[in-house]
Design a protein that fits this description.
Blueprint lengths: L4 E3 L11 E5 L4 H6 L10 H9 L7 H10 L2 E5 L1 E5 L14 E2 L2 H7 L5 E5 L1 H10 L7 E5 L10 H8 L5
Parallel strand pairs: 2-3, 2-6, 6-7
Antiparallel strand pairs: 1-4, 4-5
Length: 163
């Protein structure tokens, strides 16, 4: 049986975006809720709240507003892929379709830095997008609960967003 085709969603980005955080593809919980990083065990929103001074438990729209107001955009490398479950390791490589980064960067010319939320996002961006955009990139530890580093370790690494 073939794995289901899953699709990412539109980026979260304001007019003053300077930083782009790229995941690989939303997990099942996020896809079902149509919200980035919806799994309550994912450290993304608690890390962003600690870095940008908002309540991680605030309503989703408020968290998104606070993050985009801070000049941070959020998106995924993949627009679509076949993947059973949520793990990046389960993505079928031949099924990967990258998002349209040419259009995105043209619409958000202020983005100077791209941070990858984990190794899969970095690897697939390099493989599919080929670094054709002149921005600084850096891989950070995944905020996923599958990446078992302690919260404090993840937070320390992610502090680079605000430095």
């Amino acid at each position: 049986m073939e794995s289901p085709l899953v699709h990412s969603f539109a980026p979260l980005a304001g007019d003053r975006a300077e930083v782009l955080i790229l995941g690989n593809m939303p997990g099942v919980v996020s896809l079902n809720q149509h919200r980035y990083y919806a799994n309550p065990r994912n450290a993304f929103w608690p890390i962003m709240a600690a870095l940008f001074g908002f309540d991680a438990a605030a309503p989703y729209d408020e968290r998104v507003h606070r993050l985009t107001d801070a000049g941070v955009a959020v998106w995924d490398v993949l627009a679509a892929c076949r993947r059973p479950g949520s793990l990046d390791a389960a993505v079928e490589p031949a099924s990967m379709v990258a998002n349209d980064f040419d259009t995105f960067f043209a619409a958000h010319p202020g983005i100077e830095r791209v941070y990858f939320n984990g190794a899969a996002a970095a690897k697939n961006y390099q493989r599919l997008v080929r670094g054709s955009h002149p921005v600084r990139t850096m891989r950070l530890p995944s905020t996923s609960p599958a990446h078992t580093a302690p919260f404090a370790v993840k937070l320390a690494a992610w502090r680079q967003l605000t430095e």
